[in-house]
Amino acid sequence: MASSASETPGTQRGVGQTIRTVTVHGSAFECGKMYGEQVAPLIHRNLTASTDRLRGIEQLWSTCMAIVNEVYIPGLQKYWPRGYEELSGMAEGADVDLDDLVLLNARDDLNQILPQVAHGDIWWEDIDPDDPRGYGKFLLGQRLIVNHIWQPDGDNCSSRARRGVVLCPVKPERCPDECTTAFFLGPATQNRNVISAQNWDKARRFDDPDFIINLEVQPTDDRPAMLITTEAGMLMGSGMNSAGMAVTWSSMKSQRDFVPVDHEDPQGNKIRCKPRPMLPFPFLRRMLLEGWNMKDVMDGFTEIPRHLSGNMTVADKHGTAFTLEIIPNEIYRVEPITVPFLLHTNHFLNHHSTYRIPGTADRTNMLDSARRLNAAEEELVCPKFLGNVTPDRVVEIFSGHRQGPLSLCKHGREDDLSAVKTVAFVMYNLTKMEAFVCKGPPCSGVITKSDL
After folding, report:
1. Of 27, 29, 136, 332, which is most buried by a Cβ count within 10 Å?
2. How crowded is residue 390: how many other Cβ atoms within 10 Å of its Cβ?
3. What is the pTM of this model?
4. List of domains in the chain
5. Residue 113 in contact with residue 308, Cβ under 8 Å?
Protein backbone atom coordinates (compact mmCIF):
# COMPACT_ATOMS: atom_id res chain seq x y z
CA MET A 1 0.00 0.00 0.00
CA ALA A 2 1.58 3.26 -1.14
CA SER A 3 1.20 6.52 0.79
CA SER A 4 2.01 10.09 -0.12
CA ALA A 5 1.08 13.67 0.74
CA SER A 6 1.33 14.92 -2.83
CA GLU A 7 -1.35 15.23 -5.48
CA THR A 8 -4.03 15.01 -2.80
CA PRO A 9 -7.04 17.24 -2.25
CA GLY A 10 -6.44 20.18 0.05
CA THR A 11 -2.71 19.62 0.57
CA GLN A 12 -1.89 23.13 -0.56
CA ARG A 13 -3.14 24.38 2.81
CA GLY A 14 -1.82 21.47 4.89
CA VAL A 15 0.07 22.17 8.11
CA GLY A 16 0.74 20.04 11.17
CA GLN A 17 1.38 16.33 11.55
CA THR A 18 1.01 13.62 8.96
CA ILE A 19 -0.71 10.48 10.15
CA ARG A 20 1.32 7.44 11.19
CA THR A 21 0.58 4.11 9.49
CA VAL A 22 0.91 0.87 11.45
CA THR A 23 1.08 -2.21 9.20
CA VAL A 24 0.24 -5.70 10.46
CA HIS A 25 -0.16 -9.06 8.73
CA GLY A 26 -0.90 -12.70 9.48
CA SER A 27 -3.66 -14.40 11.44
CA ALA A 28 -6.00 -12.42 13.64
CA PHE A 29 -3.86 -13.12 16.73
CA GLU A 30 -0.62 -12.30 14.87
CA CYS A 31 -2.08 -9.03 13.54
CA GLY A 32 -3.15 -8.05 17.04
CA LYS A 33 0.23 -8.90 18.56
CA MET A 34 2.13 -6.90 15.91
CA TYR A 35 -0.23 -3.97 16.45
CA GLY A 36 0.31 -4.08 20.22
CA GLU A 37 4.09 -4.35 19.93
CA GLN A 38 4.39 -1.43 17.49
CA VAL A 39 2.35 1.11 19.47
CA ALA A 40 2.53 -0.21 23.04
CA PRO A 41 3.47 3.18 24.60
CA LEU A 42 0.58 4.90 22.81
CA ILE A 43 -1.86 2.19 23.91
CA HIS A 44 -0.78 2.65 27.53
CA ARG A 45 -1.20 6.43 27.25
CA ASN A 46 -4.60 6.10 25.59
CA LEU A 47 -5.79 3.67 28.26
CA THR A 48 -4.74 6.11 30.98
CA ALA A 49 -6.41 9.08 29.28
CA SER A 50 -9.62 7.15 28.61
CA THR A 51 -10.08 5.42 31.97
CA ASP A 52 -8.69 7.73 34.66
CA ARG A 53 -11.99 9.58 35.16
CA LEU A 54 -13.92 6.29 35.34
CA ARG A 55 -11.53 4.66 37.81
CA GLY A 56 -12.08 7.53 40.21
CA ILE A 57 -15.83 6.85 40.51
CA GLU A 58 -16.44 3.37 41.90
CA GLN A 59 -20.05 3.09 40.75
CA LEU A 60 -19.21 3.97 37.15
CA TRP A 61 -16.07 1.85 37.04
CA SER A 62 -17.73 -1.26 38.45
CA THR A 63 -20.67 -0.92 36.04
CA CYS A 64 -18.39 -0.45 33.02
CA MET A 65 -16.24 -3.44 33.95
CA ALA A 66 -19.35 -5.55 34.47
CA ILE A 67 -20.49 -4.65 30.95
CA VAL A 68 -17.05 -5.50 29.55
CA ASN A 69 -16.75 -8.87 31.30
CA GLU A 70 -20.37 -10.02 31.29
CA VAL A 71 -21.59 -8.58 27.97
CA TYR A 72 -18.83 -7.53 25.54
CA ILE A 73 -16.24 -10.28 26.02
CA PRO A 74 -18.91 -13.03 25.81
CA GLY A 75 -20.24 -11.17 22.76
CA LEU A 76 -16.81 -11.29 21.11
CA GLN A 77 -16.46 -14.99 21.83
CA LYS A 78 -19.92 -15.76 20.47
CA TYR A 79 -20.33 -13.39 17.51
CA TRP A 80 -16.82 -12.31 16.47
CA PRO A 81 -14.18 -14.83 17.63
CA ARG A 82 -11.58 -13.40 15.24
CA GLY A 83 -11.96 -10.06 16.97
CA TYR A 84 -11.44 -11.78 20.31
CA GLU A 85 -8.25 -13.36 18.93
CA GLU A 86 -6.98 -10.03 17.57
CA LEU A 87 -7.60 -8.26 20.89
CA SER A 88 -5.92 -11.13 22.75
CA GLY A 89 -2.87 -10.77 20.53
CA MET A 90 -2.82 -7.02 21.07
CA ALA A 91 -3.06 -7.47 24.83
CA GLU A 92 -0.01 -9.76 24.72
CA GLY A 93 1.93 -7.50 22.38
CA ALA A 94 1.28 -4.33 24.40
CA ASP A 95 1.39 -6.04 27.81
CA VAL A 96 -2.05 -4.87 28.91
CA ASP A 97 -5.12 -6.68 30.21
CA LEU A 98 -7.68 -7.85 27.68
CA ASP A 99 -10.61 -6.32 29.57
CA ASP A 100 -8.85 -2.92 29.59
CA LEU A 101 -8.48 -3.12 25.80
CA VAL A 102 -12.14 -4.00 25.35
CA LEU A 103 -13.05 -1.06 27.59
CA LEU A 104 -10.88 1.26 25.50
CA ASN A 105 -12.55 0.11 22.28
CA ALA A 106 -16.00 0.55 23.82
CA ARG A 107 -15.19 3.90 25.48
CA ASP A 108 -17.51 6.04 23.36
CA ASP A 109 -20.37 3.55 23.68
CA LEU A 110 -20.01 3.44 27.45
CA ASN A 111 -19.93 7.24 27.63
CA GLN A 112 -23.39 7.27 26.05
CA ILE A 113 -24.95 5.36 28.92
CA LEU A 114 -23.04 6.81 31.87
CA PRO A 115 -25.79 9.40 32.54
CA GLN A 116 -28.10 6.46 33.25
CA VAL A 117 -25.74 5.34 36.00
CA ALA A 118 -24.09 8.49 37.40
CA HIS A 119 -25.52 10.21 40.44
CA GLY A 120 -25.67 14.00 40.38
CA ASP A 121 -27.35 16.74 38.40
CA ILE A 122 -29.24 15.40 35.40
CA TRP A 123 -31.23 17.58 33.03
CA TRP A 124 -34.60 16.07 32.08
CA GLU A 125 -36.50 17.47 29.14
CA ASP A 126 -40.08 16.35 28.60
CA ILE A 127 -41.05 16.04 24.93
CA ASP A 128 -44.06 15.05 22.91
CA PRO A 129 -43.22 11.79 21.09
CA ASP A 130 -45.58 12.77 18.27
CA ASP A 131 -43.84 16.09 17.65
CA PRO A 132 -41.31 15.79 14.80
CA ARG A 133 -39.60 18.97 16.09
CA GLY A 134 -39.27 20.41 12.63
CA TYR A 135 -37.30 17.49 11.19
CA GLY A 136 -38.66 18.12 7.71
CA LYS A 137 -36.84 21.43 7.58
CA PHE A 138 -33.55 19.63 7.91
CA LEU A 139 -33.80 17.59 4.73
CA LEU A 140 -33.80 20.33 2.09
CA GLY A 141 -33.28 18.47 -1.20
CA GLN A 142 -33.09 14.94 0.18
CA ARG A 143 -35.99 12.53 -0.07
CA LEU A 144 -35.28 9.20 1.53
CA ILE A 145 -36.49 5.65 1.29
CA VAL A 146 -36.51 3.85 4.63
CA ASN A 147 -36.64 0.08 4.86
CA HIS A 148 -37.45 -1.44 8.24
CA ILE A 149 -35.17 -4.46 7.99
CA TRP A 150 -35.02 -5.97 11.48
CA GLN A 151 -36.98 -6.27 14.70
CA PRO A 152 -36.40 -8.99 17.30
CA ASP A 153 -38.88 -11.30 18.94
CA GLY A 154 -39.61 -10.67 22.58
CA ASP A 155 -38.55 -7.83 24.82
CA ASN A 156 -35.33 -6.67 26.43
CA CYS A 157 -34.15 -4.32 29.13
CA SER A 158 -34.86 -1.25 27.00
CA SER A 159 -38.58 -1.72 27.72
CA ARG A 160 -37.83 -0.29 31.15
CA ALA A 161 -36.94 3.09 29.59
CA ARG A 162 -38.80 6.09 30.89
CA ARG A 163 -41.46 7.07 28.37
CA GLY A 164 -41.52 10.40 26.55
CA VAL A 165 -38.41 11.80 28.23
CA VAL A 166 -35.02 12.87 26.92
CA LEU A 167 -32.09 12.14 29.24
CA CYS A 168 -28.95 14.25 28.87
CA PRO A 169 -25.97 14.73 31.22
CA VAL A 170 -26.17 18.49 30.68
CA LYS A 171 -28.70 20.89 29.25
CA PRO A 172 -29.64 19.84 25.68
CA GLU A 173 -28.10 22.91 24.03
CA ARG A 174 -24.72 21.92 25.53
CA CYS A 175 -24.86 18.24 24.60
CA PRO A 176 -21.74 17.39 22.58
CA ASP A 177 -22.39 15.74 19.23
CA GLU A 178 -19.88 14.24 16.92
CA CYS A 179 -19.14 13.11 13.37
CA THR A 180 -20.63 13.92 10.00
CA THR A 181 -20.68 11.31 7.21
CA ALA A 182 -21.55 11.43 3.53
CA PHE A 183 -21.45 9.37 0.39
CA PHE A 184 -21.60 10.61 -3.20
CA LEU A 185 -22.65 8.22 -5.94
CA GLY A 186 -21.45 8.41 -9.54
CA PRO A 187 -24.09 10.87 -10.84
CA ALA A 188 -23.10 13.35 -8.10
CA THR A 189 -19.42 13.50 -8.98
CA GLN A 190 -17.54 15.06 -11.84
CA ASN A 191 -15.84 11.81 -12.90
CA ARG A 192 -18.69 9.51 -11.81
CA ASN A 193 -16.61 8.15 -8.95
CA VAL A 194 -18.13 6.83 -5.73
CA ILE A 195 -16.84 8.78 -2.73
CA SER A 196 -17.41 8.26 1.00
CA ALA A 197 -16.25 10.78 3.62
CA GLN A 198 -16.37 11.59 7.32
CA ASN A 199 -15.32 14.21 9.84
CA TRP A 200 -14.43 12.49 13.09
CA ASP A 201 -15.27 14.71 16.07
CA LYS A 202 -14.83 14.05 19.77
CA ALA A 203 -14.46 15.85 23.09
CA ARG A 204 -11.15 17.61 23.70
CA ARG A 205 -10.56 15.59 26.89
CA PHE A 206 -9.89 12.56 24.68
CA ASP A 207 -7.87 14.50 22.11
CA ASP A 208 -4.21 13.62 21.73
CA PRO A 209 -3.03 13.84 18.11
CA ASP A 210 -0.49 11.08 18.69
CA PHE A 211 -3.33 8.61 19.28
CA ILE A 212 -4.77 8.96 15.75
CA ILE A 213 -3.22 6.37 13.42
CA ASN A 214 -3.83 4.46 10.21
CA LEU A 215 -4.00 0.72 10.82
CA GLU A 216 -3.21 -1.31 7.69
CA VAL A 217 -4.35 -4.91 8.14
CA GLN A 218 -3.13 -7.57 5.69
CA PRO A 219 -4.78 -10.83 6.81
CA THR A 220 -3.54 -14.22 5.65
CA ASP A 221 -7.02 -15.74 6.08
CA ASP A 222 -10.15 -15.15 3.98
CA ARG A 223 -10.65 -11.47 4.90
CA PRO A 224 -9.90 -8.52 2.60
CA ALA A 225 -7.05 -6.13 3.38
CA MET A 226 -8.17 -3.04 5.29
CA LEU A 227 -6.98 0.52 5.89
CA ILE A 228 -8.53 1.79 9.13
CA THR A 229 -8.25 5.23 10.71
CA THR A 230 -8.56 4.79 14.45
CA GLU A 231 -6.92 5.42 17.82
CA ALA A 232 -3.98 3.46 19.17
CA GLY A 233 -5.35 0.31 20.79
CA MET A 234 -8.65 0.37 18.92
CA LEU A 235 -9.66 -2.01 16.14
CA MET A 236 -11.95 0.33 14.24
CA GLY A 237 -12.84 3.92 13.55
CA SER A 238 -13.61 4.33 9.85
CA GLY A 239 -12.10 2.29 7.05
CA MET A 240 -11.90 0.99 3.50
CA ASN A 241 -11.11 -2.53 2.35
CA SER A 242 -9.52 -4.08 -0.74
CA ALA A 243 -12.95 -5.16 -2.00
CA GLY A 244 -13.82 -1.49 -2.56
CA MET A 245 -16.10 -1.05 0.46
CA ALA A 246 -16.02 1.73 3.06
CA VAL A 247 -17.62 2.01 6.49
CA THR A 248 -18.01 5.34 8.29
CA TRP A 249 -20.10 6.25 11.32
CA SER A 250 -21.77 8.86 13.48
CA SER A 251 -23.14 8.52 16.98
CA MET A 252 -26.84 8.71 17.77
CA LYS A 253 -28.81 8.47 20.99
CA SER A 254 -32.33 7.20 21.53
CA GLN A 255 -34.66 6.64 24.44
CA ARG A 256 -34.24 2.89 23.96
CA ASP A 257 -30.54 2.87 24.86
CA PHE A 258 -30.05 0.92 28.06
CA VAL A 259 -27.46 -0.35 30.52
CA PRO A 260 -27.17 -4.12 29.89
CA VAL A 261 -26.29 -5.16 33.48
CA ASP A 262 -27.71 -4.64 36.95
CA HIS A 263 -27.08 -1.05 38.09
CA GLU A 264 -28.41 1.91 40.02
CA ASP A 265 -29.98 4.81 38.15
CA PRO A 266 -29.26 8.47 39.04
CA GLN A 267 -32.10 8.47 41.56
CA GLY A 268 -30.66 5.46 43.40
CA ASN A 269 -33.19 2.96 42.08
CA LYS A 270 -31.87 -0.55 41.47
CA ILE A 271 -32.43 -1.59 37.85
CA ARG A 272 -32.27 -5.27 37.03
CA CYS A 273 -31.04 -6.46 33.65
CA LYS A 274 -29.77 -9.96 32.98
CA PRO A 275 -26.48 -9.73 31.03
CA ARG A 276 -26.26 -11.44 27.66
CA PRO A 277 -23.62 -11.40 24.90
CA MET A 278 -23.63 -8.15 22.89
CA LEU A 279 -21.11 -6.06 20.95
CA PRO A 280 -20.29 -2.34 21.07
CA PHE A 281 -20.48 -0.37 17.83
CA PRO A 282 -16.75 -0.27 16.94
CA PHE A 283 -16.68 -4.07 16.75
CA LEU A 284 -19.86 -4.11 14.64
CA ARG A 285 -18.31 -1.63 12.20
CA ARG A 286 -15.16 -3.69 11.92
CA MET A 287 -17.23 -6.80 11.21
CA LEU A 288 -18.90 -4.94 8.34
CA LEU A 289 -15.52 -3.91 6.93
CA GLU A 290 -14.34 -7.53 6.91
CA GLY A 291 -16.97 -8.44 4.31
CA TRP A 292 -16.22 -8.90 0.61
CA ASN A 293 -19.59 -7.63 -0.63
CA MET A 294 -22.86 -6.18 0.62
CA LYS A 295 -24.40 -9.63 1.10
CA ASP A 296 -21.47 -10.65 3.30
CA VAL A 297 -21.85 -7.39 5.18
CA MET A 298 -25.48 -7.96 6.13
CA ASP A 299 -25.55 -11.74 6.62
CA GLY A 300 -25.85 -12.40 10.31
CA PHE A 301 -25.10 -8.81 11.27
CA THR A 302 -28.69 -7.88 12.00
CA GLU A 303 -29.08 -10.68 14.54
CA ILE A 304 -26.30 -9.50 16.86
CA PRO A 305 -27.87 -7.92 19.99
CA ARG A 306 -27.06 -4.31 20.88
CA HIS A 307 -27.94 -2.00 23.76
CA LEU A 308 -27.22 1.38 22.11
CA SER A 309 -28.19 3.43 19.08
CA GLY A 310 -25.89 4.51 16.28
CA ASN A 311 -25.43 5.11 12.58
CA MET A 312 -23.20 3.26 10.12
CA THR A 313 -22.77 4.41 6.54
CA VAL A 314 -21.73 1.71 4.07
CA ALA A 315 -20.75 2.27 0.43
CA ASP A 316 -18.99 0.24 -2.26
CA LYS A 317 -17.28 0.88 -5.58
CA HIS A 318 -20.27 -0.49 -7.51
CA GLY A 319 -22.50 2.35 -6.31
CA THR A 320 -24.43 0.54 -3.61
CA ALA A 321 -24.64 2.79 -0.57
CA PHE A 322 -26.91 3.26 2.42
CA THR A 323 -26.88 4.23 6.04
CA LEU A 324 -28.02 1.92 8.83
CA GLU A 325 -29.85 3.75 11.61
CA ILE A 326 -29.75 1.36 14.52
CA ILE A 327 -31.56 1.31 17.84
CA PRO A 328 -31.24 -1.58 20.29
CA ASN A 329 -34.20 -3.51 18.95
CA GLU A 330 -34.58 -2.32 15.35
CA ILE A 331 -32.51 -1.45 12.27
CA TYR A 332 -33.50 0.88 9.42
CA ARG A 333 -31.73 1.06 6.09
CA VAL A 334 -31.90 4.62 4.71
CA GLU A 335 -31.16 5.45 1.06
CA PRO A 336 -31.58 8.57 -1.11
CA ILE A 337 -34.18 8.44 -3.87
CA THR A 338 -34.11 11.94 -5.43
CA VAL A 339 -30.43 12.95 -5.24
CA PRO A 340 -27.29 10.81 -5.71
CA PHE A 341 -25.84 11.48 -2.28
CA LEU A 342 -26.66 11.11 1.40
CA LEU A 343 -25.45 13.16 4.34
CA HIS A 344 -25.79 12.10 7.95
CA THR A 345 -25.01 13.83 11.22
CA ASN A 346 -26.31 12.68 14.62
CA HIS A 347 -30.11 12.71 14.47
CA PHE A 348 -32.44 10.13 12.98
CA LEU A 349 -33.45 10.75 9.38
CA ASN A 350 -36.12 8.04 9.64
CA HIS A 351 -37.87 10.08 12.31
CA HIS A 352 -41.41 8.97 11.42
CA SER A 353 -40.47 5.32 11.91
CA THR A 354 -38.59 6.12 15.10
CA TYR A 355 -41.35 8.16 16.67
CA ARG A 356 -44.01 5.59 15.84
CA ILE A 357 -42.26 3.10 18.16
CA PRO A 358 -43.66 3.50 21.70
CA GLY A 359 -41.03 4.73 24.14
CA THR A 360 -38.50 5.77 21.52
CA ALA A 361 -37.23 9.34 21.26
CA ASP A 362 -34.19 10.96 19.66
CA ARG A 363 -31.84 12.18 22.43
CA THR A 364 -29.55 14.09 20.08
CA ASN A 365 -28.60 17.75 20.32
CA MET A 366 -30.79 18.79 17.39
CA LEU A 367 -29.39 22.32 17.08
CA ASP A 368 -25.85 21.12 16.39
CA SER A 369 -26.72 18.08 14.30
CA ALA A 370 -29.33 19.81 12.12
CA ARG A 371 -27.18 22.86 11.40
CA ARG A 372 -24.31 20.70 10.23
CA LEU A 373 -26.67 18.78 7.95
CA ASN A 374 -28.12 22.01 6.60
CA ALA A 375 -24.71 23.55 5.95
CA ALA A 376 -23.56 20.60 3.84
CA GLU A 377 -26.84 20.18 1.98
CA GLU A 378 -27.02 23.84 1.01
CA GLU A 379 -23.67 23.40 -0.75
CA LEU A 380 -24.70 20.23 -2.56
CA VAL A 381 -28.31 20.76 -3.58
CA CYS A 382 -27.22 23.80 -5.58
CA PRO A 383 -27.37 22.82 -9.32
CA LYS A 384 -23.93 24.34 -9.80
CA PHE A 385 -22.35 21.53 -7.79
CA LEU A 386 -24.73 18.60 -8.13
CA GLY A 387 -23.06 16.36 -10.70
CA ASN A 388 -19.77 18.25 -10.39
CA VAL A 389 -18.55 17.13 -6.97
CA THR A 390 -14.78 16.61 -6.86
CA PRO A 391 -12.52 15.41 -4.04
CA ASP A 392 -11.42 19.02 -3.53
CA ARG A 393 -15.05 20.03 -3.21
CA VAL A 394 -15.68 17.34 -0.60
CA VAL A 395 -12.71 18.61 1.43
CA GLU A 396 -14.05 22.16 1.11
CA ILE A 397 -17.51 21.12 2.37
CA PHE A 398 -16.09 19.24 5.35
CA SER A 399 -13.82 22.23 6.13
CA GLY A 400 -16.81 24.57 6.48
CA HIS A 401 -16.96 27.08 9.34
CA ARG A 402 -20.03 29.12 8.37
CA GLN A 403 -22.06 27.87 11.34
CA GLY A 404 -19.46 28.91 13.93
CA PRO A 405 -19.19 26.40 16.82
CA LEU A 406 -21.91 24.29 15.15
CA SER A 407 -20.01 23.94 11.86
CA LEU A 408 -18.92 20.71 10.19
CA CYS A 409 -15.28 21.51 10.92
CA LYS A 410 -14.93 21.97 14.67
CA HIS A 411 -12.05 23.40 16.67
CA GLY A 412 -13.56 23.79 20.13
CA ARG A 413 -12.42 26.08 22.91
CA GLU A 414 -9.02 25.06 24.20
CA ASP A 415 -10.03 25.79 27.81
CA ASP A 416 -13.14 23.56 27.63
CA LEU A 417 -12.38 19.83 27.88
CA SER A 418 -15.97 18.97 26.93
CA ALA A 419 -15.78 21.05 23.72
CA VAL A 420 -15.93 18.98 20.54
CA LYS A 421 -13.06 19.09 18.05
CA THR A 422 -12.56 17.51 14.63
CA VAL A 423 -9.65 15.13 15.21
CA ALA A 424 -9.54 13.49 11.77
CA PHE A 425 -11.04 13.59 8.28
CA VAL A 426 -11.27 10.61 5.93
CA MET A 427 -12.33 10.41 2.30
CA TYR A 428 -12.45 7.22 0.25
CA ASN A 429 -12.59 7.23 -3.55
CA LEU A 430 -13.96 3.72 -3.91
CA THR A 431 -13.85 3.76 -7.70
CA LYS A 432 -10.10 4.44 -7.72
CA MET A 433 -9.42 2.56 -4.47
CA GLU A 434 -7.81 5.63 -2.91
CA ALA A 435 -7.94 6.74 0.73
CA PHE A 436 -7.29 10.32 1.85
CA VAL A 437 -6.73 10.78 5.58
CA CYS A 438 -6.07 13.94 7.57
CA LYS A 439 -4.99 14.08 11.19
CA GLY A 440 -6.83 17.05 12.67
CA PRO A 441 -9.37 19.35 10.97
CA PRO A 442 -9.40 19.14 7.15
CA CYS A 443 -9.23 22.95 6.92
CA SER A 444 -5.64 22.94 8.16
CA GLY A 445 -4.22 19.41 8.45
CA VAL A 446 -2.03 17.44 6.07
CA ILE A 447 -4.08 15.10 3.88
CA THR A 448 -2.21 11.88 3.11
CA LYS A 449 -3.13 9.64 0.20
CA SER A 450 -2.96 5.85 0.29
CA ASP A 451 -3.70 3.42 -2.54
CA LEU A 452 -5.34 0.08 -1.81
Report:
1. 332
2. 16
3. 0.84
4. 2-25+123-256+280-451 (3.60.60.10)
5. yes
